[in-house]
What we know:
Layout lengths: L4 E4 L7 E2 H8 L5 H9 L4 E2 L2 E2 L5 E2 L4 E4 L14 H6 L2 H8 E4 L3 E6 L15 H4 L12 E2 L8 E7 L2 H12 L4 E9 L6 E13 L2 E7 L7 E13 L3 E8 L6 H8 L29 E9 L5 E5 L4 H10 L3 H8 L1
Parallel strand pairs: 10-16
Antiparallel strand pairs: 1-6, 2-5, 3-4, 3-6, 7-8, 8-10, 9-10, 11-15, 11-16, 12-13, 12-14, 14-15, 16-17
Amino acid sequence: MAGIEHIKVDADEAGMRVDRWFKIHYPGLGFGALQKLLRSGQIRVDGGRVKSDSRVQPGQVVRVPPLDVDKAKTGPIAGKELKHAGDHELLSRMLLHEDDKVIVLNKPAGLAVQGGSGVNRHIDQMLEAWTNQRGEKPRLVHRLDRDTSGVLVIARTRGAAQKLTAAFRERDTKKTYWSLVKGVPRKKEDKISTWLVKEQTPDGDRMRIAKHGEEGADHAVSFYRIIDTVAQRLAWLEMEPYTGRTHQLRVHALHIGHPIIGDPKYFIDDPNWDFPGGVQKRLHLHARHIDIPHPNGGRLKVTAPLPPHMEQSWNLLGLNIEDGDRDSE
């Protein structure tokens, strides 16, 4: 059993209820035990007594008495942890932001958002674990590809879902992705505008560039800019999809001749190009940041840490994460 701890509230935990904060940091602490500690004043925030529904703010310090429970692991989720953690624990580990209307998760790479062929576990199914007392299950309002990690916005209520879905539909959201691509684009920043159409392949659905007017084709617009390069072999791109088509950024990266590293569908092996040693052959595409209207008013801005395989690549290649965030401010 550890001694008394003093834990600083993180920026991502702004407005979180005290009971939720403890559920994330100490998942083994039962509701009754938490209430007892709160009533007796053993748990304090900035030295003052609090209740389970009190809200914490970034920079506040939570006094945690000695607890006979394990502290939760933190940080992005690795592949093997996906298989063994329970739904409630895994969702809690993904949590970036939570309030009465909106939940924002950092989806791990490899976890599907919705069901489909060959999918045994997915976010939509896992959200059953967070059904509220009125029987309302949190609702998905947008999607990420299975192999893409990062910011995933979820609505707590039907009304919030309608407002958030409308914001995505009306493009009143700014979604920023980070990718690592083969080679270095000629232009430091550019707009990519094409038509895309879905086609069936033995490996599942695949998108391809289509002609204007081709049946089933949708217009797709993306923007990119180079944040940094590794010699002339790799480029770290900030990418922003203006439209939201399936696999849009992945196809657009291929279209400009710079496919995303480790993409199982769109990265075609080139005998004249060696995959960087130490870099995992997994999709290097991450939904880094979202800026979206909050259903209660104002705007919600959330950033997601890189997944383990991309963090490993950034460290290996000497890329500084702060460069990307500083440039986009």
